[in-house]
Amino acid sequence: MDQRTPASLLPLDAESQISRWDATNCPVRDVMSQISGKWSSLLLLALSEKPYRFGELRRLVPDISQRMLTQTLRDLQRDGYIDRTVYPTKPPSVEYAMTQLGHSMFDPLSKMMTWAAQNHSAVRDARRRFDASDLAG
Amino acid sequence: MDQRTPASLLPLDAESQISRWDATNCPVRDVMSQISGKWSSLLLLALSEKPYRFGELRRLVPDISQRMLTQTLRDLQRDGYIDRTVYPTKPPSVEYAMTQLGHSMFDPLSKMMTWAAQNHSAVRDARRRFDASDLAG
DNA sequence: CCGGATCCCACACGATACTG
DNA sequence: CAGTATCGTGTGGGATCCGG
Fold first, then answer.
1. pLDDT tens string A111-136
2. What residues 18-37 of chain B have any CB closer than 8 A to a CB of chain A?
3. Is the separation of the CB atoms in A28 and B116 below 8 Å?
4. Which stretches within B14-98 are classed as H helix?
5. From CA B121, how far away is CA A22, in angstroms rounded?
6. Considering only CB atoms, which chain A residues are within 8 Å of B112?
7. Residue B52, beta-bridge partner list
8. Which residues 6+ apart lie within 8 Å of A73 measured at CB?
9. Under a CB-based contact definition with an 8 Å cutoff, are residues A46 and A69 in contact?
10. Residue B55, CA: closest nucleotide via C1'?
């Protein structure tokens, strides 16, 4: 099925690799903790298509609060995934656009999201089975 | 089962897609919220190689607490990514092994982890630049 | 050896009101 | 329009002790 041992990173001599990934020294967690926020992936999905303005993003993701929209966009900008451009028009408008780094990151991320969408029912089934069988014990 | 065109999922007609992904109705977040836990990806990385016992995993990820190791393994089992087998030996031993579903999920996940490891420095640079320039203002 | 039970805290996230 | 400021909460996660 899948060829494991991705490019290089995971030669998976686990004893020598994983043991060094403590909390303060793990690049994977350092990078992914941002992406795995509640709204990051959805905003990246939107911006992977084309740039959007603040209000547009707000309408695209209706159940996000202004606070979290601002904060998530700021964090994504901080990590270099998106650019923020202010146009000093009469009512000011701000446009967010995905950077090159953001696109290169969204490529594998979108595959994760696709997998999640396609296998959602399988995961839900596994959960129901687990809850039904093992919980009473 | 998936009424919402997840197959193509990302043709990114955002107006018609994202707006429906509210908190209670988003398969992507439902699946990924588990994976994006602090320890899930590391344990999946270890188990993608070969099965491990509880104590072995504990030694592989030294800074994890027993509580979180137990809980994370339980959640991964619940979602169908790993199997748990108890051998009733004198001191009981428990082995965890990745399932087929787990391997199919780890394939895109490992690509995300590879990207994170390879682009860690770029992200860190972006952060330093952002903190230096924008924070004072 | 493999956990469960309990206590506790930090922080992500939400709701609301206010500003340039 | 595009944010900031403040307050409150749920929960992911750590430390520790207890049990089969």
1. 999 999 999 999 999 999 999 886 55
2. 18-19, 21-23, 26-33, 35-36
3. yes
4. 14-17, 27-35, 40-49, 54-60, 66-78
5. 17
6. 32, 35, 108-109, 112
7. B96
8. A43, A54, A57, A82, A84, A96
9. no
10. C1
Q: Could you list the pLDDT tens digit for every one of the 137 residues in chain B?
A: 333 323 333 434 444 455 455 555 678 888 988 888 889 999 999 999 999 999 999 999 888 999 999 999 999 999 999 999 999 888 889 999 999 999 999 999 999 999 999 999 999 999 999 999 875 54
Cβ–Cβ gap A32/B112 under 8 Å: yes
A70 contacts chain B (CB < 8 A): no
Question: Which nucleotide C1' is nearest A89 CA?
Answer: D1
- Residue A12 CA to its chain's centroid (Å): 24
Would you call A101 and B131 a contact, using CB atoms and an 8 Å cutoff? Answer: no
CB contact under 8 A, A9 and B130: no
